[in-house]
Design brief:
The protein contains 22 helices and three strands. The protein is mainly alpha-helical. The protein has two domains: 145 residues; 246 residues, Neurolysin, domain 3 (Orthogonal Bundle). It has a three-stranded mixed beta sheet, with helices on both faces. β2 and β3 form a beta hairpin. The longest helix has 31 residues. The radius of gyration is 23 Å and the shape is globular. The N and C termini lie far apart (72 Å). Bound molecules: zinc ion. Zinc ion binds next to α10 and α12.
């Protein structure tokens, strides 16, 4: 094959895969939002078929040679070389699994999701437990095909965040335990902040009206994105100009849909802002989970919970809810928005206790894969750990072990990236605030200019570089957890007047 033939073959292959991925992505969004549940079995079978076709395409036996050929060819540009290396890695993980097993797994994964949803709705862990047990076995089987010496859970962690392993996460979470658990205790003992007005009844139709205004403030443009509702908010995309975010409205929490929207739109911006020349390629798709979460959590917490963000938005919110918020001052609202109280549901957790929710999931996942924890009675283990770290336990499994979707589709190793992403975000924000006047921009309706900084320093690279290198490019230094610890300590010490405690 000549260099040109190789290039053509490579481009065709990438294009076809992007077509399958687009179809499956949109079917996936449909399933999680509006698709009628009774049609699930029919759809799941056909989705599994499509996954099988994509699998065959991805593992086309002639491609490894093409990819290696392009990597070795000195005339190949840097972007293509990097993409080929990323594809090589991805293929090596998929190729080793026999196709029929792969298709069976896709089907099982869909069934497992359906079982999780049913178990959550019926508040019955027993419905999901056999699926979780099987999922763990399936994952062990899949990873065994890779024939690597590395520890199984380390491989899973690396899949979601290249370069991370248990040793590094252990050190990260040790720091969180050492520095944040005592702070959480001090906050618990401090004078509580009144946030009762956030939990009054907020009409959902009225919440949706405010949401339209919020999406305008966020510059989330209908020409490239739209919002839908779902059980467990997420974001998906097919290309630069097709990003779908989801949210969930709760009548007794006005901030839930708002903050989840700011979060998911943060994910959407990342995809929208990746250099469009990477559209359809792995350089746009393969961004690490930690980097993605760093951007969504940066938007949610480091922007969306600040006084200046609300200096602009609070009067609008008040207008929709005069009886609940008309008498509340901006300061009281922002303080309430940042209240820290140990709670059961991760996605509703405050910034300070959030990493503890992740720590618990990390310790459970570690245990599930090193054999010290079993899926049987995991609802109990879950509660014991919440009791140990946060002093609370779930009465209902829907607010305990069944609250998150991840394990139902075998996404073990994903959770730790949420905490890591928050910590990355602290480091980015530290640099960003030194370079632009974030507060002034937020207050004056220039959210887009804050996003522009993120685009220039982080988003546009896609995964052209590893997270580690993007951190260095943007902040001038390697990942440093201290920014995160300092940020939380400073914020909560001031909020709860702990200076002299
Ligand atoms: Zn997220």
């Amino acid at each position: 094959m000549t260099a040109d033939e190789m290039k053509k073959k490579y481009q065709d292959w990438v294009f076809k895969m992007s077509a399958y991925r687009m179809a499956m992505g949109i079917i996936g969004v449909d399933k999680m939002t509006v698709a009628p549940t009774a049609g699930a079995a029919y759809r799941d079978e056909r989705t599994a078929y499509l996954a099988g076709e994509l699998f065959s395409l991805e593992t086309d036996p002639s491609m490894p040679e093409v990819l290696q050929g392009l990597i070795d060819d000195p005339s190949t540009d840097g972007d293509t070389r990097r993409a080929c290396e990323k594809y090589q890695e991805e293929i090596s993980h998929t190729l080793c699994i026999p196709k029929d097993e792969y298709v069976d797994f896709e089907k099982f994964s869909n069934e497992s999701y359906d079982a999780w949803l049913q178990a959550k709705q019926k508040n019955d862990y027993a419905i999901f437990e056999p699926y979780l047990t099987k999922m763990i076995e399936e994952k062990k089987k899949q990873y065994a095909y890779r024939k690597k010496d590395t520890d199984l859970y380390d491989q899973m962690l690396d899949d979601f965040e290249p370069g991370m392993d248990q040793q590094k996460y252990d050190a990260f979470f040790a720091k969180i335990k050492e520095e944040l658990l005592p702070l959480i205790q001090k906050v618990k003992a401090a004078k509580p902040i009144d946030d009762s007005f956030l939990k009054e009844t907020y009409d959902i139709e009225e919440q949706k009206k405010f949401m339209d205004e919020l999406l305008t403030y966020l510059h989330f443009d209908k020409s490239w994105g739209y919002q839908n509702e779902t059980e467990h908010p997420f974001t998906d995309w097919t290309c630069e100009n097709d990003c779908r975010v989801t949210t969930k409205y709760l009548p007794n929490s006005v901030t839930s849909a708002i903050l989840s929207t700011v979060h998911e739109v943060g994910h959407a911006y990342y995809e929208h802002d990746v250099d469009p020349k990477y559209d359809g390629m792995i350089l746009s798709d393969g961004i690490s989970s930690g980097m993605h979460e760093s951007q969504s959590r940066l938007c949610e917490n480091y922007l969306g919970r600040t006084k200046d963000f609300w200096a602009y938005n609070f009067p609008h919110l008040q207008k929709h809810f005069p009886s609940q918020l008309g008498h509340v001052s901006l300061d009281a609202f922002v303080d309430a928005l940042n209240v820290s109280v140990p709670s059961l549901v991760r996605t509703e957790a405050d910034e300070l206790t959030y990493p503890i929710h992740i720590l618990i999931r990390y310790e459970i996942e570690k245990g599930l894969f090193n054999g010290t924890i079993s899926a049987e009675h995991l609802d109990q283990t879950w509660n014991d750990m919440y009791e140990k770290y946060l002093g609370i336990h779930a009465e209902k499994v829907s607010e305990g072990i069944l609250q998150d979707v991840h394990w139902s589709s075998g996404e073990f190793g994903y959770f730790p990236t949420y905490a890591l992403g928050s910590a990355f975000a602290a480091q980015f924000v530290h640099t960003m605030r030194a370079q632009i006047d974030v507060d002034d921009l937020l207050k004056n309706d220039h959210y887009d200019r804050v996003i522009a900084w993120l685009k220039e320093n982080i988003h546009h690279y896609g995964c052209r570089y590893d997270a580690k290198d993007i951190l260095i490019k943007a902040t001038g230094e390697e990942f440093n957890v201290q920014y995160y610890i300092d940020y939380l300590k400073d914020k909560y010490t001031k909020l709860y007047h702990l200076e002299n405690v």
